[in-house]
Amino acid sequence: MTNNDTLRLALLAAASSLLVACGGGDAAEEEAETPEVAEETAAAETEPAEPDSIPAPEGSLAAGPMIIGAEDAPLTIIEYASVTCPGCRLFHQRVYPTVKEQFIDTGKVRFEYRELPTSPQRLAVAGFIVARCAATEGGPEAYMGVVDALYQRQNDWVRGPNPAQEFNNIAAQVGLSGKAFEDCFKREDIREAIAESVEEAGEDGATGTPSFFIDGRTFSMPSDPEAAAEALQAEVDKRS
């Protein structure tokens, strides 16, 4: 079995089991900031039956790159992150608002968010499925809105007693409930998009989350908003 096959196996397991089992032991696992090894996931579980799949609605934006900012921005930043990663949550709560206000919204930076699910991986994948499902019509802005909500309530759905209910609550805020919510986990285009993001992480050399890249090279994003703004402005100035 190839790495790509085992990755898709893990995603299939998440998609097929979340609705009935995401309140189980995964939420009690120790949080980590390094990716789960796909082979370990596959070895620990019996191969699941492939879940029902449904096609993407016509015109869906859910499987595309999750990029916000002007296309002609002089600087493009790629972040590999996980919605279960505490460090990612801190970046998006403390630093990202400054980056968005001063650089993305002003046309200086084009920002791309890529998924790299970390422990508990099943919950991370589920969160990303909900975020991409919200992007079906709303695109990257809707996706980032769900990601933001997942970070804000991370402790509730990662450590809480009922992750499924928390996902339902977050999804309902963007109009996903009932059958629409359940259908998110049957979307082959969404599962494939997440798998491709993880594959890209391996190709780019992202070994943990959050990881930032500029021009194909790792970028050390400061954890202080002012320091991050200074570092990013220096990168913008190089391209002026």
TrEMBL record:
<feature type="compositionally biased region" description="Acidic residues">
    <location>
        <begin position="27"/>
        <end position="39"/>
    </location>
</feature>
<comment type="similarity">
    <text>Belongs to the thioredoxin family. DsbA subfamily.</text>
</comment>
<feature type="domain" description="Thioredoxin-like fold">
    <location>
        <begin position="64"/>
        <end position="233"/>
    </location>
</feature>
<dbReference type="InterPro" id="IPR036249">
    <property type="entry name" value="Thioredoxin-like_sf"/>
</dbReference>
<dbReference type="Pfam" id="PF13462">
    <property type="entry name" value="Thioredoxin_4"/>
</dbReference>
<protein>
    <submittedName>
        <fullName>DsbA family protein</fullName>
    </submittedName>
</protein>
<dbReference type="InterPro" id="IPR012336">
    <property type="entry name" value="Thioredoxin-like_fold"/>
</dbReference>
<feature type="signal peptide">
    <location>
        <begin position="1"/>
        <end position="27"/>
    </location>
</feature>
<feature type="region of interest" description="Disordered">
    <location>
        <begin position="26"/>
        <end position="61"/>
    </location>
</feature>
<keyword id="KW-0732">Signal</keyword>
